[in-house]
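Handout, page 2. Input:
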Amino acid sequence: MPPKKRARVSKRAANSGKDDGGEAVSSAKVTAGGKRKATGATKESSDSADPPQYSRWLMKSEPESRFENGIDVKFGIEDLKALPDQTGCWDGVRNYQARNFMRVMKEGQLAFFYHSNCKEPGVAGVMKIVKEAYVDHTQFDKKDVHFDPSSKADNPKWSMVDVQYQRMLKRFIPLSELKKYHLQHRSKGGPLKDMALFTRARLSVQPLTDEEFDFVLSLEDKEPL
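Output:
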C-alpha cells in the first residue's frame, strides 16, 4: 500500500524544546516522551517496559508545510481524507515510547487526529486503526527524512500502523481550550487532570483513557470555554 504521501509525526517538540502551547518543556517531560530524530533516538532501555492497556489514542501530525531535507513533511487530516480509501500509514515515529504505544494498538480502536506545530494546535477529527503495527519501511530509505542507519532489516527498530479517516469534529477543539479544562480538572477533579497531552506533552503518540476520549469528544457539542 503505502501511499506516496504518508502521515508524519509532529517535530515541534524536538526542534523547539517547547510543547504546543509554547511553554518550556521540563526535563521530566523529555524523559517521559521526548522525541528524537532517528540518529538521536531515546535509548530503548529507558522505554522498553510494556505500556498499560489502552484503547483510545491521540496522534500528532503537522497540517502546515515545513520542509526537512527538501521534503515537505506536512500531513493534516485533510491529507488523510484525500488518500485512497481515506487510509494512510503513520510512519516516521522515532521515539521508543511512542513506538511501543503503536505496537499495542488494536484494529478498530479510535484515535484523535491532532494538529501540531501550527498556528492553532488542537484536535481536528477522529480516525480508526485499520492495520496493527508492522515494520516502518522509512527507517531503511536513505532518501527519507526518517532514515535510521542504525536500524537493520533483520532487527528493525521502528513500527507503524495504518489509520483511516472517520470524520471531522463538529468544531475544532484547540489546545488552549483543552488546557483550561486540564487546569480546572487538576484543581477540582475531572477526566483531563492527568491527560498525557499535558503530562507528556512532547510525545507524538499518546494514550487516552476512555473517560478522556469521551470528554474531549463531548466538547464538539458545547460552546468554547
